[in-house]
Amino acid sequence: MLWATAGVAALALLVALEIAARRYGQPGPITNQLKGLILAPKPGPLYGGLALMSVVLTWPQRIIAAGVAIGIDVVFALVRWAAGAKVTDGHFFDFFGSGALWVMLGCAVIAVTRRTGRERVLLLKGVGLGLLLVAGRKTGDTWLLITSKTRPAVLDQYVATADHALGNPSWTAGRLLQATGPIGIHILDLVYAKLAVAAIVVALYQLRHVVVERRFPRHHVVRTFLVIGLLGPGIYMIFPVVGPVFAYGPGASGTGGVQWAAANLWPHTPLPITTPQVMPYDQITPRNCMPSLHTAWATAIFIHTRKGSRILRFAGAFWLIATLAATLGFGYHYGVDLIAGVVFALTVEAALRSLDRGWDRRGIQLVVYGATVFAALLVSYRYVPMEMARHQGVSGSLLILAMTSVVYGYVRAARLWEPAAAAARQPEPQPEPV
User: Fold this and answer.
1) What are the Cα distances from residue 218, in Å, to 122, 256, 346, 365, 421?
2) Which of 19, 96, 106, 194 to pair with 170, CA 20 to 30 A apart?
3) Measuring CA to CA, which residue among 145, 132, 131 is closest to residue 28?
């Protein structure tokens, strides 16, 4: 029932976003996904979805699925190349990706027609997991389009003023990143762009026993990733912000620019404390800063790597630190966005874990407290930014304290939850033979 309800809800969301995108003259997530069956799609998400689906397959089946996907893509790529089809970056491998989608849909057909009982359900769950990852990417793109079209005014001046409480870390990080030269910029850009790949690696580690146990674990990183991506854009609509590089700098990737910025200050000129105002911005740049979902996703990766191997734990910590540095250093986020992102991620994670293990008093208190802190952060950024800027020591300490309190509450709750789970899995002692 849970999977059926989730499937119906996901379909309803896709249809609603498709209708909304059509109103602005753009194809929605369903159209873009159907185009991916024939036209050259982005290969990353599709093969990532195929990898997630493969956790329910045996190794021979995985090899066959990958081989069929690559074979289909080779045929499609040759046809597209012969027809002179254009690709985004001009690389031959950008023709690839459709094969993975065809294989996932083929596995769904096999599950319905050739499987029964638990095997059918397991294979359908694997296909659904892979397609959810792909649909999440398409849905996110449509959400960003909607934020830029429906929110002509942004609240960057309010957030930038409140960011004085933390010392405007994006300005400092931007100068430091530029001082590292092309090597540092390239590394952080790679980390920032490949966050979904890191999540897939963690998910594959967590789901590595599915093919043997013939069931999914009750909780894994993909669930947290999808819920964060589902709820986050709704907050974008409530609190539209474009980011320092757009609101106070030259823009990035050819989007936005000085003509829309409040001033060209980022990252070399300190931001003055002035009374903030709502400012108009273009209808191209996504309003995707508050909260920082990259920070939220990196926090989720960090949490879910704590039980992994030493290498995985190190990678999770590195990805979190590098993501925080990239979000600030590239001017995509203010410091207060990151604090909101951490609180948001921990609240979502606590809610999902409480849902799985059963709601108890501690779980309810943690979720309510995290949601209250998150709401208080947004209200303070919007309505008392000048007071935060004038009293930097006090307001900055309160912001860090608020975030730390949620972190402490989550860590304490998680430690109390784990022994109970371990005790439930521990077998009863058997009497020794005489």
Assistant:
1) 14, 43, 18, 22, 12
2) 194
3) 145
Cα–Cα–Cα angle for 229, 302, 190, rounded to 5 degrees: 75
Close Cβ partners of 265 (under 8 Å, ≥ 6 residues apart)? 248, 249, 271
Helix axes 43-53, 59-82, angle to 10 degrees: 160
- Comparing 261 with 198, the larger pLDDT belongs to 198
For residue 293, what are the contacts with CB-CB under 8 A and spacing of at least 6?
228, 229, 232, 341
Highest mean pLDDT, choosing among 12-26, 103-117, 374-388, 418-432:
374-388
Dist CA 209 CA 104 (whole Å): 20
Contact 170, 334 (CB under 8 A): yes
- Give the mean pLDDT of the chain: 86
HEC-encoded secondary structure of the chain: CHHHHHHHHHHHHHHHHHHHHHHCCCCCHHHHHHHCCCCCCCHHHHHHHHHHHHHHCCHHHHHHHHHHHHHHHHHHHHHHHHCCCCCCCCCHHHHCCHHHHHHHHHHHHHHHHHCCHHHHHHHHHHHHHHHHHHHHHHHHHHHHHHHHHHCCEECHHHHHHHHHHHCCHHHHHHHHHHHHHHHHHHHHHHHHHCHHHHHHHHHHHHCCCHHHHCCCCCCCHHHHHHHHHHHHHHHHHHCCCCCHHHHCCCCECCECCCCCCCCCCCCCCCCCCCCCCCEECCCCCCCCCCCCHHHHHHHHHHHHCCCCCHHHHHHHHHHHHHHHHHHHHCCCCCHHHHHHHHHHHHHHHHHHHHHHHCCCHHHHHHHHHHHHHHHHHHHHHHHCHHHHHHCHHHHHHHHHHHHHHHHHHHHHHHHHHHHHHHHHHCCCCCCCCC
Query: What's residue 258's pLDDT?
Result: 63
Q: Which is nearest to 97 in space by CA: 11, 57, 37?
A: 37
